[in-house]
Request: fold
Amino acid sequence: MHTMITHRKAAVVAITMVSFLGLASAQQPQVDLVAVARIREEGLQRSRVMDTVSYMTDVLGARLTLSEDMKRAQVWLKAEMERVGLVNTAIEPFMDYGVTWDNEYVSLHMLTPDYQPMVGFPLTHTPGTGGKLTARAAIVDLQTKQDLATYRGTLKGLAVLVTPPVAIDVAALAQGVPRRTEDELQKLEDTVITPPRVAPRVVPTPDLLKAEEKMAFYKAEGVSVVLQCESGWIGAVRGFARPGTKDDKWSREKTLASPPIVAVTPEHYNRMYRIVKRDIPVTIEVEVRNRVGEAVEQAANVIGEIPGTDLKDEVVMVGAHFDTWHASPNASDNTSGVAVALEAARILKAIGARPRRTIRVAFWAGEEQGLHGSREYVLKHFGNPKDAKTGVTPQYEKFSVYFNQDYGAGQFRGIALQGNEQARQIFTAWMAPFHDFGMRTVAIQSLGSTDHVSFDNVGLPGFQFIQDRIPGTGGHTNLDFFDTLQAEDLMKNAVVMASFAYHAAMADARMPRKTQK
Ligand SMILES: [Zn+2]
Reply:
């Protein structure tokens, strides 16, 4: 049997500093080095993280929010959370989202003037081609309302190339992306005054057609398929959702009313484009099969807990988004983050940790479409003090902190404070046992674009780690597979996340909150 890890107040000499303003007193944050040692042993010597992430990437694969793939994967995830010992697990719906959408088959070829198998993926929430089609490729440069007349009646049955050819940055290909240098981390830490955010100026352009207006025109004109390319990397397809999905809420009707839209890898797209420019006919063959759900369904997060003891009503959370884009298993974005948070929970269970506060693990959905899962969860469970109508729930005060992972699969090198100065000395102390990992940077900056923002936005402490970048990963592309993941990075990340969650759950006080504007 493991002996229970206790909160050792005597382990660290606490230095009490009384603020000269007399507003508050702060204790030196405590680090339980026995707990850290056990977490390190379990996470670095008996790690399960690569096995977990291999199952998720290899067997489960891509997990678009509210796809049949995602629903299957969430059932597996809930069972896996129970297997590592989490309780109160739930697949918790958060909103009426839209209809399910799954890509089941893609086949894309250039037939003439030379045979070339091509790589492409449909945008989500587009229809299939309704069988195998052969079509001539044509360049279309449709920008303004005036351009509509030029193309009207000329596009029937064509495969239209609707984006300009994409430049490949050969120099960037050769260099790869280095890990963060000491200089770079130092610069982050030295930026003690965060520069104000300048919102980009939007110039109104009434004559420019919106992407969804262009697609409606192509459909009305009877094109066979829309081909496009956004990626500047050889081999990489970047393709997201059909234009307009945010407004039409992933609707079946709008999906079926769209032309098939396929994003193509740049080298294949550019080749077709150059041949057409020579006035030599290009013929392609394409077949796409997509499954579109019949009825609007709810999207869901997956939740589980390690129950607390004397402070069990108070909550510490860790999490990561489980949803991905659809063209690969998205090993780095964010399957690795899910594996790390799950492994952190497994480590804590394996060492017999008995946290004072409840540690809740959350695997979000809808992140890639705009943080929907975490935002709805936060509003439902904690509320929003800035919203006079809803206010906050009793759980709002009992919440301590949320730690997120979603900046790729690179190693944690520090943490961003999101402007919360009171968290500085706490994180500095909690990171001290991980200096040998290269984890030592505390920066006042705010990181954005992922699920901790949903907490931060309502005044709850939510943090994202500063991470290394790993060369060769292609988040949001068809190239994001298990093969680029680095075992040591993920093992270390799980250890750090476990230790941060544990210390937050054991601390005398909940995580201090920054002053609200
Ligand atoms: Zn992500």
